[in-house]
Amino acid sequence: MSLNQTKIVSNAKKYFETATKNGFMNDELMSFLGEAFLGAPASNMLDYHNAFDGGLIDFLLNVANYAIRINNSLPEDEKVNQSSLLKVCLLHGIGKAFLYKPCTSNWHRENLGKMYEFNDELVAMRVSERSVYYALSHGITFTEEEYSAIIFLDKGDDKMAEYYNSMLGELLKMGNTLAIQNSRKIKQPKTTI
Q: Could you tell me the domains of the chain?
């Protein structure tokens, strides 16, 4: 899959309008993320998800869509604040804005589906940590619950993250999982049994 330029621009507009309206985007962070963010993929391999130009914003919007839909289906006393949910869904992956660069090897692209390489100039940290770092460094603040929801997302091996996540964190995790699964849908041949 790939996105045309019109869809990339439309997604970016929706992303920034939603984030600004809900109070977790400012000019400083928007300027920092810049053009790199608009064209960033969400992963580097075609076997993964959203490994195409504009894939990151497309993915983040899908995560938010799923998480909001799940939250809206909950009983009133279990729902989380929608603005807070949008915040963690749309900011949890901004750490990928500069993570990938185009793969220059045609062989790797054609035979392995490796569309992007990792940017070795970045200091090693998890995407969630880098996302929070970028946001905090550019004037965005988090509640403890928002912070932990993002940080716990890629700590699947951490028992604290597994057993003590908040409802906000669980909604982020479910939205993330569903967005990945939806992007991997492969049409199965019909069977006649």
A: 5-183 (1.10.3210)
What is the helix (H) or strand (E) element at residue 91, kind and residue range? Answer: helix 82-91
Sign of CA dihedral 167, 171, 176, 181: positive
Answer yes or no: are the C-beta atoms of 36 and 54 closer than 8 Å.
Answer: no
| Backbone dihedral angles phi then psi of residue 117, each to the nearest 5 degrees | -115, 160
Q: Tell me the pTM.
A: 0.90
Instruction: Write out the two tokens for 144.
Output: 């403890």
Look at residue 189 in the predicted model and tell me its pLDDT.
39
- Strand locations in the chain, DSSP E? 100-102, 116-118
Q: Bridge partners of 117? A: 101
170: region left, alpha or beta (phi > 0 left; psi from -120 to 50 alpha): alpha
Q: Which residues pair with 45 in a beta bridge?
A: 114
Task: Express each pLDDT in 116-125 by its tens digit.
Answer: 999 999 999 9
> Please, which pLDDT band fits residue 154 given cuts at 50, 70 and 90?
confident
N-term to C-term CA, the chain: 31
